[in-house]
Amino acid sequence: MSHFLDPQTLAELGDLPLIAKRLATGYLQGEHASVLRGNGIEFNQYRAYEPGDDLAKLDWKLFARSDKYFVRQAERESDIKIHFIVDASASMSMTGPVEKTANSRFATAATQPSKPFQTGLSKHLYAKFLTATLAYLAHQQGDSIALSVCNSEQQRHTGMANTQRHLQRVLIALEQSQCAGHLPLQWHHDSGAIIGANMIIVITDFAQQNNEIIEFIESLVGRHREVVVFQLQSQAESEFDYQGLIRFVDPETGRDKVLNGDQVKQQYLSNRRAYLKQVQTRLLNAGVSFQACFIEQPLDHSLRQFLTNRMKMR
Amino acid sequence: MTILALFSSALINFYFPALMLGLLALAIVVYIHWFTQQKPQTRAFALLDLLPDTKPMATTQIQLQEKRLFWLRSCLLLLSVLLIAGAFFTNFATTNLNTSRIKLVSMGYLQSANREELSKLVNSSDKNVQSLLLLPNYPEFTDELYEKIISAKSSSDDAKSLLEIVTSSDAHGVIAANDWQGIDNFFEYIHAQENISFIDKHLDVYATRQLAYYLGEQPSIKHYQQLNFHFPKSQSLPASWLSKNSPPQAKVLIIAHVSREQDAMQLQRAMARISASKIADIAVSRALDTEVFPSMPATDKGLLSRSLADLNGVFYLPALTDNNPNIERIVAAMPDNGVVFSESSIQHAINWHAPTTGTVDLPQQSANAAGLLLEPVNVLKYLPATTKTKRADYQGADFTTIWQETVWQHALANRGQQPVLLKRRIEITDSAALYASQQQASQQQAAQEYTSEDNSQEPDFYDQALKRQQENTIKSDHRQVTLWQLNTRFDRQWSDLLEQRQLPHLLYVWLFSNGIEAGFNQNYLLSHALIRQQVRTDQTAQTTEDVTLAKAVAKKQSQQLNDVQQENFRNSQSLLAILFCLVFIAERWLSEWGRPSGSAGKQRYGARSQKEEGVDESS
Does B580 map to a domain? Predict the structure, then answer.
């Protein structure tokens, strides 16, 4: 269980707090009053008083020292509710290449054998690491977390809490999850269980049959709720380095196609680019944050990129 | 096997059958297609819908993925091979064998028949009767040809000029080895004509009497019920030795050493076959007997005096290693006008006549050379001007067609050579031993006289020498016994083949000895092919009728197209060319446009993309 939390990764991510975009745009802009006072208030900066400002926020001591009016602005990090939804369908069991060449764009990953998940890592395992790390970071800053691991054969749901014990339950649920079947169609009906979350993080590979994943994610979008999607993809899918006659088997449906890798490479890459563009377009239109991750990349690299982007959004 | 079936069925003929080896190239292609298919590796892939639905094409390895294309291209190759090999279908057009009766005339018959027989043959032909010559392409025996043959026979032309008359084609490798082979080829030819119901037709074969010996031996003739043989009467048997000189109940005795028992049995079987074949009117009711002695009867004078007195002929088969067979005693024991047949191996023990031994030095002797001296066959041999010429002198030289008669006369004309057949009519006293001792010196003298004669000596020089010799013998108290000696051992190579198979030959010579009376007629001799067949039949009791590819190719190569076949050839080639064009067009269409589109995934996504675009626009 604890091996999901790589100390080095956590150390590198320690200065990157998980901040919800809506919190940054809501509470920190002063548009809405915070419902929680006291321990959670943290001073941020002083600002010159402007007519219309609440006099209760004037720093009278500073006025006494400087004889100027300053308004005390505080940044409030409230504990939000984060719900992790992990796609555990059979397609998530695809692994990346065990050995990488120096010419690969992921050569840096191969040159770091100390990372336990950089070679031969499946999408599902990568999702476990990613979820555990984000859950830990969220718990460290006082956020409540919940987890849903779903496929057609099993669905694991944990409650929403911010205790250390609950974090352990989340990690255990992650540990026990396995890939099988396909995404259940009743996801749409179960979405009510996660209505209370302020932030929903969906980790999937977008291996869908009839846009059911996109439609599900779009159904999650609501007021005061942020949806972040991590799309896991492998180098084999992005570069399509298959050569010769290959029988491609869909692990979810069992369908297969016998194709020549060299022959269909260009057309597949073209279709894939168009497909990803379509997915991103729909998600962006729905206000969903999209983050693509290669399972051959180091996990900290993906997390750092994601958190850095969020810091820029503040 | 399919190719062989095509050949054997003769449904398809090939002008260049050797080019059918192109099928081998086709087989290689098929082999590569069928046995080098690449087994696809299985990989899990989630985004299966993004993969196009194209048929995988071979890139690094040859694969069989397009079956329709494969079959089309195979047909294309097959048609190419058929076109190149000059295939034509024999049943697409009518042949000229649509008459109800066919007369097949062999060259031997033309050579042996007299004018009356030839004129009868020509006059009996009408619209329903077709006379064909037993030659390649089976030309018709027309009146013009008849006139030419009559004029040639009147001018005493030999068989070579006769052949030149009846056919203008080159005889190199075209003419059959003998009449029987030609008959056999004709049967194969007519059975290949499927559009001819040959069962209802009558076939009259005009051949030499040599062919009669084969009756009852060949399955192809057995199965043909409407077959009639006609033999020339000019050299038939009414004047044979048996009918003239022997009583009806004459007996033939085979005196054989125990080591020659197999030969004696073979000789007896040959007699039975000749009797069963009902050749003319001989030997049918005669009792044939065989006696095998553990030792030669020369030591059993009582046996000789008792058993040979009422015999008409004796076949004497001494041990091969017997240097002193004492044939004189057998000859002495024979009654008047008796005939003794012996082999040349014993000639050294007989001191009646001692020609210089030697071999006929024919260059490049081969298995065909054995038949050279046994049947009227034209062979491609370069006959040396002198027997001293070495074989190396003829390598690379142009071979000319020579005839057996030429070789025969050449062998006789050269000094020191033995002829194939020795004929002696001997007058002996009561004591053969005394005769031998008295005549030894005179025979040697006669032989020396002969050897000093000119090379243009006639073939019957032995008779002349013997006549001169007989003039010097005692005229009183003598009996006349004819001794035939068959010499097939003048060459070691031929002897290997004929040593154990010469006895039916000897018998045959005897039965038709009336021709030999007037001079040796090689038409009566058995063929090399039959000797070989007898060897196989006796040993394995099997007939070799399997049509091998090599035989079929050789046979087809020897064929030349007649007018009907040429028309068939043109029609078949046109049909094949049209088929080739059609298949080529189909192959091009299938390879360029007929393949399934590889943009299924793209189309699928395209529809989805258009749908999404529509949603976006509406939103």
Answer: yes
Of A256, A260, A274, the CB nearest to B56: A260
Residue A108 DSSP label: H
Q: Say whether both B376 and B513 belong to one domain.
A: yes
Task: Work out how many domains chain B is built from and give that number.
Answer: 3
Whether residue B275 is contained in a domain is answered as yes
Cβ within 8 Å of B, A 251-310? 251-253, 255-260, 262-264, 267-268, 270-272, 274-275, 278, 281-282, 285
In percent, the amount of chain B with pLDDT more than 70 equals 25
Structure confidence at residue A64 (pLDDT) = 92
Read off the tokens for B383: 């006959």
pLDDT at A24 over 80: no
* Pairing outcome for strands B479-486 and B287-293: unpaired
Q: How far apart are CA B198 and CA B104, in angstroms?
A: 14
Same domain? For B119 and B260 the reply is no
Q: Which ipTM was obtained for this model?
A: 0.71
Burial of residue B441, with CB atoms counted within 10 A of its CB: 0-12 exposed, 13-18 middle, 19 or more buried = exposed
A residues 191-250 lying closer than 8 A (beta carbon) to B? 205, 207, 209, 211, 236-237, 242-250
Domain membership of residue B159 as a residue range: 101-234
Contact residues, chain A, for B616 at CB < 8 Å: 281, 285
Task: Tell whether B171 and B310 lie within a shared domain.
Answer: no
**Rounded CA gap, B493 and A252, in Å?**
83
Instruction: Categorize the per-residue pLDDT at B256 as very low, low, confident or very high, splitting at 50, 70 and 90.
Output: confident
> Tokens 């099993």 correspond to what residue?
A154
Provide mean pLDDT across the span B394-410. Answer: 42
As a whole number, the mean pLDDT across chain A is 75
Does residue B407 carry a pLDDT above 60?
no
The answer for B 584-613 residues in CB contact with A (under 8 A) is 598-599, 601-602, 605, 608-609, 612
Q: Give the distance from residue A61's alpha carbon to the nearest chain B alpha carbon, in angstroms.
A: 54
pLDDT the model gives residue A65: 92
In the sheet with A199-204, reading across from the earlier edge strand, the strands are A155-157, A144-150, A81-87, A199-204, A226-233, A289-294
Query: What is the tens place of the pLDDT at every residue in A230-284?
Result: 999 888 888 888 887 888 888 888 888 888 888 888 899 999 999 999 999 999 8
Give me the pLDDT at residue A80, please: 80
Domain-ending residue, one of B234, B264, B297: B234
Instruction: Verify that B601 and B580 share a domain, yes or no.
Output: yes
Residue B38 contacts A where some CB pair is shorter than 8 Å = yes
Q: Is A306 exposed, middle or buried (0-12, 13-18, 19+ CB in 10 A)?
A: buried
Domains of chain A: 2-18+79-313 (3.40.50.410), 41-76 (no CATH)
In a domain, B494, yes or no: yes
Give me the pLDDT at residue B105, please.
84
Most confident region among A79-83, B215-219, B232-236, B306-310 by mean pLDDT: A79-83
Residues of A in contact with B40 (CB under 8 A): 244-247, 258
Given phi > 0 = left and psi -120 to 50 = alpha, else beta, which region is A301?
alpha
pLDDT band at B283 (very low <50, low <70, confident <90, very high): very low
Closest chain A residue to the Cα of B58, Cα to Cα: A260
User: Phi and psi at residue A36, in whole multiples of 5°?
Assistant: -115, 135
Convert the pLDDT of each residue in A175-199 to its tens digit.
888 888 887 766 655 656 677 788 8
- Sorted by sequence, the CB contacts under 8 Å of residue A4 that are 6+ apart come out as A128, A129, A132, A133, A171, A174, A175
Dist. CA A295–CA A302, nearest whole Å: 9
